[in-house]
Amino acid sequence: MKQRNNHIRHVKNDRLATIKPGYKGNKTIKGQFANGEELYNPDFTNVIRWQFTQNPQRQEKKQDTYTPPVQQGLDFIHDDKDMVVWLGHASFFIRLQGITFLTDPAFFDISFMKRKVGLPCQPEALRNINFILLSHGHRDHLDKKSIQTVFSSNPQVKALAPLQAGNLLRGIEPQLPYQEAGWFQKYDLVPDHLEVYFMPASHWHRRGVTDVNKVLWGSFVIKTPTMALYFAGDSAFAPHFAEIEDLLGPMDVCLMPVGAYKPSFLMSKSHMNPHEAVKAYNHLRGGMFIPMHYGTFDLSDEPASEPVRLLEQIAATGALQGLRIPAIGEPVLLHDFA
């Protein structure tokens, strides 16, 4: 028993503040990050099962040609208002109190996956970016070409990343400054009038053959004196949403993943369906709900328009008061929270 426990460690960035009382750090088992307390290794046999199981919505999906609308233009780059601008998938441009962020930039085709919808501007035009927020290392969230493009146009940019993401980033762009954080930790690179926290998610990591769960995953909270914004990254539904609200209060703006949830035997431990995303949002005591992680890449079995249709149906029942479904490139102003 004692020998087995030698394989368990708790890891954090000792230079950063940890906001959860008594939290020892992220649990690792034989060098792999646990998904909270338990190690989660996706079962490859489920991928095989998926390949040999006919999608019951196959025809519906084939006929569903939905892609999110795109609002072309660059004005949001030069504006000075607090705003959120969806750039497709899990990529957002965020401006809060003069500080600009890009989340999980993925602007191009990725590893056998073609991007189905364009951007509001050329990726090179995204300038004056202060921080890249990286939730985890999957290639549709941490994309080499996108990070290199952003850094080329923004030599001042810094990355806020999970534990053990540094080696990935050095291999992508050696000159990109970064800081790693574990769950419940506050980054210290951000100006004093903003607070950025790395918070939990229920997910996993893999980019290659031998690196399963070697890099942490998580979500972000950005707080100003007047509002709190939550970026969920990738996550299954789990108790951490209620814990985040308990530690940091209600989230005024929630950027929530709502796609890539079918078949559930493959996806339910990694992603949320729209009903689960709304449940998580309610645990966060959320204000505005902006969906993401749909319509940009074909990752799963549900028809392309299904996530949006389900959200609209949920909102029509009164169970989702703050739904906003912006076009890609459409600024969502946040002055209501000032």
Automatic annotation (TrEMBL):
Which residue ranges does UniProt annotate as crossing the membrane? none
Which residue intervals define the domain Metallo-beta-lactamase in the entry?
Answer: 101-294
Q: Out of the domains of life, which is the source?
A: Bacteria
**An example Gene Ontology cellular component term from the record?**
cytoplasm
What GO molecular function annotations does the UniProt record carry, in alphabetical order? N-acylphosphatidylethanolamine-specific phospholipase D activity; zinc ion binding
Record's protein name: Metallo-beta-lactamase domain-containing protein
Its taxonomic path starts at: Bacteria, Pseudomonadati, Bacteroidota, Cytophagia, Cytophagales
